[in-house]
Design goal:
globular; mainly alpha
Length: 107
Amino acid sequence: LGASLSLTNKLQMAMSMHASRRWVLTGTPTPNTPNSQVAHLQPILKFLHEEVYGRSQKSWEAGILKPFEAGREEGHARLIELLHRCMISSRKWIYVPFHHVCGRSPF
């Protein structure tokens, strides 16, 4: 959907589509940016309609981005909790119950 932090036309179109379930498959790590590596996660969370940090830029910035960039433990802990809740990694064995992926039931 694009490497930019801004809402690209593709991302805006994808987010406007009605869907009962959404998946994102990435093949490469998020790009490094001058501001933050984790900043690239928010547009993905927005597309997924993640219940807390995908719906509100202010919640994302206050809850994860600013504390993480400041090196505070709560930012790191919230990011790890979010990733465990919404991510399935092929490189790690992380048990994520299927019905808990981003807070939505697959059925």
